[in-house]
Design goal:
The chain is of the alpha+beta class. It has one domain. Helix content is 51%, strand content 13%. The strands form 2 sheets. A two-stranded antiparallel sheet has the order 1-2. A two-stranded antiparallel sheet has the order 3-4. A hairpin with a 5-residue loop joins β1 and β2 (74-80). α1 runs antiparallel to α4 (114-135). The two termini are 47 Å apart. 13% of the residues are buried.
């Protein structure tokens, strides 16, 4: 008994599989950029609500940049250039002189704004990316 398997359109399938990463990148790029924009906007507004505006550098320092991540990757970085942001996010320890005079601390109760804002935007982005690749016909498993 002989068995014969004939597949038609194999070249078309290979071409489609080769182009798939580029197509996925094209569709994923706006999702990633929108998530970074949401994070930036949320962080700026939360900084303005949590701290008095003196110079405006804290909110103005939040920015984003898009970088190349290879042929099929998209990379957007949300960052802050405000020097006081780490102090306000994490606070500082109580500072004292050699004679034990108190010099205070920065933010006795630090308010976490930057990292939670980025994490919320990333969670939304991941959910949108999963939905996007599933619409493209891929199966997503795991967490």
């Amino acid at each position: 008994m002989s068995v014969r398997l004939r597949i038609e359109g194999m070249k078309d399938l290979k071409d489609a599989l080769r182009d798939l990463p580029a197509e996925l990148r094209a569709g994923a790029a706006p999702i990633i950029e929108q998530a970074a924009e949401r994070a930036e906007t949320e962080i700026r507004s939360r900084y303005a609500a949590a701290y008095p505006v003196r110079s405006g550098k804290l909110a103005r320092g939040v920015d984003r940049t898009t970088k190349s991540a290879g042929q099929f990757g998209v990379k957007v970085i949300v960052f802050t250039s405000a020097k006081q942001a780490p102090w306000l996010e994490d606070g500082t320890k109580d500072r004292r002189t050699k004679r034990n005079y108190g010099r205070g601390r920065i933010t006795a109760a630090p308010v976490k704004i930057f990292v939670p804002g980025v994490m919320r935007a990333r969670a939304q982005m991941v959910a949108q990316l999963i939905a996007y690749v599933e619409r493209a016909g891929l199966v997503v498993r795991g967490g």
